[in-house]
Amino acid sequence: MVHTLRVLGVDTSLRSTGVGVVAAKGSSLSLVSCGVIKNAPKLKHSTCLSNILSGIQDLLREAEPDAVAVEGAFFAKNAKTAMVLGQARGVVLAACSAGGIPVYEYSPRKVKQATVGFGGASKDQVAKMVVRLLSLKEEPPEDATDALAIAICHVHSLTGHAALDAEEI
Questions:
Q1: What's the half-sphere exposure (Cβ side, CA atoms, 13 Å) at 106?
Q2: How far apart are CA 118 and CA 126, in angstroms?
Q3: Regarding beta strands 67-71 and 103-106, do their DSSP bridges make them parallel or antiparallel, or are they unpaired?
């Protein structure tokens, strides 16, 4: 009997964190759920972080993923932007760790490579491929699509040489 693997992908942002859960059974992928944890522009950062925390905790309870995949840290020209993104990312990592769920990170290039087959793919190409791979009727919101691509990347990284690169954080 083949085990169904559930992976939560998270595209972290302070104002619009994308989330997507993918189920993989053998070579078959399907959508479990997806959405966006939204925070209004006028909310304090601490309130936004608290909302992200509770949103991720709720999703972990509801979806019961076997693993979580996040996009790796990136280098930003603006130090404040990088710091805020790091805080949001830290909340996600802490929620997953507290829930006992292993977390893996993938570079944006690796996510594009795993979904489209080309590390320099455009956001539009990634979105179209996510729709195709999950047999969706319509494209989810952009942040949710990115999160689904990250989850798909993790599933694809569990086989062959890519499995050697999957690193739990």
A1: 33
A2: 10
A3: parallel
In the set 143, 146, 167, 168, the catalytic residue is 143
Is 146 annotated as catalytic? Answer: no
What's the rounded mean pLDDT across residues 29-52?
A: 96
Write out pLDDT tens, residues 25-38: 988 999 999 999 99
From the list 169, 154, 141, 168, the residue with the least C-alpha distance to 19 is 141
Domains of the chain in sequence order: 4-165 (3.30.420.10)
* CA 158/CA 84 separation, integer angstroms: 31
Token code pair at residue 19: 């989330």
Query: Given the structure tokens 């952009």, which residue do they identify?
Result: 142
Of 71, 124, 138, 168, the catalytic one is: 71
Q: Would you mind telling me the total number of residues written for the chain in this entry?
A: 169
